[in-house]
């Protein structure tokens, strides 16, 4: 698997699946979540509302993932995952790791060969960029070892230069 990091807008990336740093309601929010919902158009919200009506009446759990179509995005799929919120005491790195590994499994199940991730839980959820980068890169590498050839490429698409620097440094080790 090829793993890279770049600065950019995840809603414009040409990949099979993008990962959304969602909240448990799946009904949109701020940051990456809000940008993805805005770029995908109203059908994404309708698909998420249908998930809430049917298979996820209590919302999506921390570390879990679920896919919807990408609708108006360049990506065919949006894989929604809920990162741990340090401000709520969710400090276990295993929860953060699960966001990445579970999302890759969901993406692979959707036959996605290329996947783009944001820095799940960095920013408003209180995790330091260096910690997110380390957990994310380690999780992706370990998942690839257990699932060789399931996904060809993972791109970490990061909004700020500071977070990009953290991911780039981690990828070099």
Structure notes:
There is one protein chain. The protein has 173 residues and is α/β, with parallel strands linked by helices. The chain has five helices and six strands, in the order E-E-H-H-E-E-H-E-H-E-H. The chain has a single domain (2-172), classed as Leucine Aminopeptidase, subunit E, domain 1. A six-stranded mixed β-sheet has the order 1-6-5-2-4-3, sandwiched between helices. Strand 5 (114-117), helix 4 and strand 6 (153-158) form a beta-alpha-beta unit. Helix 3 packs across helix 4 (129-146) and helix 4 packs across helix 5 (161-172). The longest helix is centred in the C-terminal third of the chain and has 18 residues, at 129-146. The protein is globular.
Index terms:
6-stranded mixed sheet, O-acetyl-ADP-ribose deacetylase, globular, 173 residues, Macro_dom-like, alpha/beta, Macro_dom, Leucine Aminopeptidase, subunit E, domain 1
Outline type: globular
Strand order of the largest sheet: 1-6-5-2-4-3
- The H/E string reads EEHHEEHEHEH
How many E-type strands?
A: 6
% residues in beta strands:
15-25%
Overall tally of structural domains: 1
Rg result = 14 Å
Task: Report the structural category.
Answer: alpha/beta
Assembly context of the chains: single chain
Roughly how much helix do the residues carry, as a percent range?
25-40%
Protein name: O-acetyl-ADP-ribose deacetylase
Domain Macro: 1-173
InterPro entries: Macro_dom, Macro_dom-like
Organism: Isoptericola chiayiensis
